[in-house]
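Researcher: Please generate the 3D structure of the following complex. Treat every line as part of one assembly.
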Amino acid sequence: MKSPFRQLIVVIGLVAALFVAVAVVFVRDSLRARVTADLDAELKARAFALSRLVETRSPRLMPYIEQGLGTAPGGVFLQIFDADGNSIAYSSNLDAAIPLSDTVRRLAAERFEAVLEDSRSSSGEATRVATFARAEASPGKREVGFFAQAGIPLASRAQHSERITFALIGGGAALWCILLGIAWLFIRRWRASLRGMTKQIASLELASLHPNSLAFEVHDLDVAELASAIQRLLGRLADTHDAQQQFVAEASHELRTPLAILLGENDVALRRERTAAEYRETLQSNREEIARLSRIVDNLLTLARADAGEPGPLREPLNLHTLCGEVCDQLGPVAEGRRVALALESCPSDPVECVGDRLALHRAVFNIVENAISACPGGESVKVDVSCTGGIARVTVVDTGIGIAPEQMSRIFDRFYRTDAARARGSDGAGLGLAIVKSIVESHRGSVAVQSAPGCGSTFTISLPCMCAAGTVEGGCESAG
Ligand SMILES: Nc1ncnc2c1ncn2[C@@H]1O[C@H](COP(=O)(O)OP(=O)(O)OP(=O)(O)O)[C@@H](O)[C@H]1O
Ligand SMILES: [Mg+2]
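Model: Done. Output below.
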């Protein structure tokens, strides 16, 4: 696979090169314009100075004038023309006079100020000249006395410009290298951080995960944010892994006990010949253990499906009063067997409608009422009430049983958690019932709450979004009128 870093470097290199090229062209053109302007100004000044010097001295003094104005081979040259444009004198660095063009002569004579022109010497060399017309003092008129001209071969300016261009290209290349070097250093550091992180993540063991599993220094802000997001993810993964390990351990433990009992009873029964009644008794006992096993497996499956998030609850309209009535009818014989007074308080004429999965909600209410009956070993009472207030339907199960110790309240909805009292009673529950209740109710966008005090009984309340038209349906037949 191609490394994205290499491509990134290439892209940064190209962008930097483009940037540097544009900067070089811009600076070169600005400098050229500046040099040209300076040169033109200098030529004008020299042409003017020449016109002044010629006024006081004879053109034959040209060598001395040259010394004063400073001419050199290949550099600035000087020329003087008469009013008709004929050459009078020229500096020694010219082989022959460069003729004065008619256009320049006319313009200079009209304006009496320096006129600039690109022309060619007798040898065809390109030159830049400034021509200044010197007026002759005559009363009432302004006539041209002579033309003073200062010029320079453009080759020297081109050389100058070339030097500037080379210097700029060199500087631009150096700048490009520096930019690329800085980008490369940054990317290398960034890449090293990512590589370090990747290496550590690859070597992580699921069993040894914890929120600070990644331990290395990160200098880059983005990579640091990525590292901390991964740390958080690892923390969650570690929690999930621990919970899963615990779940598997507890599930195995819960399944092992009935299996061990089954095996033991079978072994005892097979040790010698038994009567038909003894075999029946063993089979009956085994059946109870198998029923318990099947209930645990069924509960585990329900929770596993809920964890996987599928299937979502059905959305069928249902009457909570009818649903609670069915649960009470179903558990009535159990309550009776334990001498517990089980009653549905709300009135059938006050339907509390909501939308949900009827079977699942039936299971949730069943689990809570079943727990309430189990919590009443001394023949206390269990009351079920259904109401709807402010758009919330409530199923309340109140028992006057053993209650729950405050320190155990927060854990009763955990999977496989059973209270000390339940363990002491030798209850055959697996501690999954309330976890299933919570999962079902939350999948219906509802909640389940508990209030309890040891020895004073408990109140479990399931709250669900309801569809009651009136907005308020109070529980109990008397209050319903
Ligand atoms: N109304 C109640 N009063 C007192 N303790 C309760 C009450 N309801 C639940 N508990 C206790 O809370 C714990 C968790 O209940 P849960 O229904 O999850 O498990 P279980 O009844 O032990 O087993 P399962 O429902 O899986 O057969 C149990 O130990 C149970 O005794
Ligand atoms: Mg239970």
